[in-house]
Amino acid sequence: MAFGIKRKDVLEWKRAIDRGELAFLTHYWLDDRFPHCKTVTKVGCRNLNQLAQWGEQYGLPKEWIDDRKADYPHYDLLGERQKIILEKEGLQHHITKFQL
Fold first, then answer.
1. Per-residue pLDDT averaged across 52-59, rounded?
2. How many domains does the chain have?
3. Sorting pLDDT into bands at 50, 70 and 90, what band is 2?
4. CA 98 to CA 77: how far, in whole Å?
5. What is the pLDDT at residue 71?
6. What is the phi-psi region of residue 4: left when phi exceeds 0, alpha when psi lies from -120 to 50, beta otherwise?
7. Which domain holds residue 29?
8. In this structure, are residues 43 and 74 in contact, taking their beta carbons and an 8 Å threshold?
9. Residue range 77-90: average pLDDT?
10. pTM for this structure?
């Protein structure tokens, strides 16, 4: 279940993907499969090859790409990996806002 996010933020994430950009969206999230995780960052890109190449630099296999919704394929970043990648991408505002 996602919460703590505005519709505007989701639309901006989707628009960036529609423009062919790599886009980041962090929000609060609860899932019984991951009880230790309270947030998720979705990293999306329309171009699957570009997304897979981006993920490769962080050790993310292309098989982890969630492409069930073909228009908005993305990686889901959780836990310590989420924070490390956000730091390396210079997205401190995500870390601060969600107290990661």
1. 97
2. 1
3. low
4. 14
5. 84
6. left
7. 2-97
8. yes
9. 96
10. 0.90
